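Q: I have 257 residues here and want to know how they pack in 3D. Can you give me a structure?
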Amino acid sequence: MFSLTVVALMSFCGMFFAWRWQERHANAGIADVIWAFGMMLAGPWYAFTGTAPLYLKIALAFLTLTWFLRLGRHLALRVFTEPEDGRYRAMRLAMKNHVSLGFFLFFLAQAGFICLLSLPFRAVAQNAEPTPVRVVLALLIAAVALWGENQADRQLADFKARPENRGFTCRDGWWRYSRHPNYFFEWLHWFAYPLLGWGGIYQAYLWLTPVVMLCFLCFLTGIPFTEQQALRTRGDDYRRYQQSTSSFFPWWPKSIP
């Protein structure tokens, strides 16, 4: 219970100060940055306060640290060098005269998501009888996910860096086969935790982790808001992209007349 309390306090304090920062800078994207770094800290904390064997603790700490450090740095670069993300601008307009309160509640919800989505780390850290082969397989899956997400982010950044692409949709590399390859590799990453927790008392529950993340990414916080913003900024070009390209799972694009 102590470890849960520490993560909750860290999450809510971090998001409170992030909310104060966005009040001054009018950029709610900082919530994504703090979420990523909060998850990054929660992983090693749960690992080394858990009861698992040392090699599993090291594997869990390394996996969460590398994944969420990369994500946090990527998001921080975007927040501190670019205007506020269009999704948050749309939220700001929709909240009208209640922007401050609305974002305060939103940031509190993000703190709650850190507490909720880091629970698989705690479950893994209680696994007293891990299977070494499955631990290695989990790290391999996480490595593939990290490689794929890095590739997708780099391909998108290179596309956006070319002025002639302004107002158009990236179809380079992984973006030719999925409209959201970064979300796909994010989802793939979460399969590592059921494998790390295999043999523990929570192993059945850990298989819900990729299911929950799929629901979040495809139906709640990920694709719906991202695509609404894409349609606002890229219009018909993005509609053609929707018609030809898989929404989530990488697949060959359709031919559109």
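Q: Anything worth noting?
A: Residues 130-257 form one domain. The chain has twelve helices and no strands.
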